[in-house]
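To illustrate the input format used throughout this study, we show a single complete record. The first block contains the structure-token representation of the backbone; no residue identities are included at this stage. The design step must infer an amino acid for every position from geometry alone.
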């Protein structure tokens, strides 16, 4: 019995696929490599193909005797989704529907799905729990909400799902040889690393007049190794008969942009040049998780703090200044 990891050549998927292999589980990665890297897959089995290609997915299910899926494959750039909504709905929503149709036809009835805290939009308050209203503010966030809704409906087919709403994934593998592609992303930790390593002159902090303790925006940074562990727990939950579930994956701790800069300077003994600019449209002041549900049902909690996130990201950037090769 094998776990199919779609998008397993990407950032979070590769960490999860390697963790599963370390735990002795059989894994096969399915990825187009459009936004992922062969080197991130290493010596794990890799099928190069699209989730929407029913022949490739069906053949993979049969060849590897797939019994469960972790579905990471998607586009994830919020800004790009605003300018190219069709691309996002087609890949993230239509692609998932095609994938699920093939999975069901091949007797696979357990799926863990990468959702996002972006489904909450600007929450009324933080910590935010799973009952908060969904107010997606971009085609990307809407695509995640749509897939959650679709998967819930699929309960009627016998497919059981866990939708994990990630907060801000950050950090890298302990080895320093697996990490986030920092060339494209606008996520804070990779941007701070770009500044430290000289490919960006300074960090622009968008606003310091928010109603937060130091005026800068507050987010919930989750170490990618902890995130990977949440997927293992979600798979085990489904394998032991758990019913469909939607839950947050966050630490429950808010960290401001200024705090993140301070921790980075302390961990690396280097200064992070930065400048305060105006607020950016659409940025909520404070978003961090209420992780009560995932603790109670999956027995998961974050075990790594911000220092470990920064230390591991720094190590990855030092060892791989140009990221993975294409
Ligand atoms: N990184 C974050 O902070 C974050 C936060 C919330 C949710 N997520 C979600 O988690 C998932 C993984 O994120 P990531 O940061 O690892 O992204 P990533 O871009 O590094 O990885 C996504 C992978 O999916 C592959 N892919 C895309 N479309 C595909 C398709 N049609 N068929 C096969 N492969 C395809 C890409 O080539 C890439 O390797 C995504 O669904 C993303 O939306 C990420």
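Output of the design step:
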């Amino acid at each position: 019995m094998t776990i199919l990891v779609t998008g397993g050549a990407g950032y979070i998927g590769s960490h999860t696929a390697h963790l599963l292999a370390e735990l002795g589980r059989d894994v096969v990665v399915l990825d187009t490599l459009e936004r992922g890297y062969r080197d991130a897959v290493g010596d794990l089995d890799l099928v190069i193909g699209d989730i929407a290609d029913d022949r490739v997915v069906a053949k993979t299910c049969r060849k590897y005797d797939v019994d469960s899926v972790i579905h990471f494959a998607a586009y994830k750039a919020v800004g790009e989704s605003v300018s190219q909504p069709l691309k996002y709905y087609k890949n993230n929503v239509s692609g998932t529907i095609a994938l699920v149709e093939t999975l069901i036809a091949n007797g696979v009835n357990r799926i863990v799905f990468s959702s996002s805290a972006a489904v909450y939009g600007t929450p009324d308050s933080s910590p935010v729990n799973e009952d908060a209203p969904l107010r997606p503010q971009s085609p990307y966030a809407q695509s995640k909400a749509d897939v959650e809704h679709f998967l819930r409906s699929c309960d009627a087919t016998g497919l059981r799902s866990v939708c994990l709403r990630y907060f801000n994934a950050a950090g890298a593998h302990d080895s320093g040889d697996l990490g986030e592609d920092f060339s494209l992303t606008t996520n804070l930790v990779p941007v701070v690393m770009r500044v430290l390593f000289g490919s960006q002159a300074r960090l622009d902090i968008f606003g310091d007049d928010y109603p937060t303790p130091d005026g800068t925006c507050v987010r919930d940074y989750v170490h990618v190794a902890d995130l990977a562990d949440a997927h293992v727990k979600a798979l085990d939950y489904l394998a032991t008969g758990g019913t469909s579930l939607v839950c947050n994956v966050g630490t429950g701790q808010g960290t401001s942009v200024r705090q993140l800069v301070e921790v980075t300077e302390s961990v690396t003994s280097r200064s992070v040049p930065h400048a305060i600019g105006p607020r950016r449209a659409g940025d909520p002041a404070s978003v961090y998780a209420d992780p009560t549900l995932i603790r109670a049902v999956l027995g998961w909690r974050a075990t790594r703090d911000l220092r470990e996130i920064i230390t591991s990201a720094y190590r990855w950037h030092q060892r791989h200044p140009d990221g993975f090769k294409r």
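Structural context for interpreting the output: Residues 6-7, 9-13, 30-36, 50-52, 72-74, 76, 91, 95, 114, 116, 166, 168-169 surround nicotinamide-adenine-dinucleotide (CB under 6 Å). Residues 1 and 177 are 28 Å apart (CA to CA).
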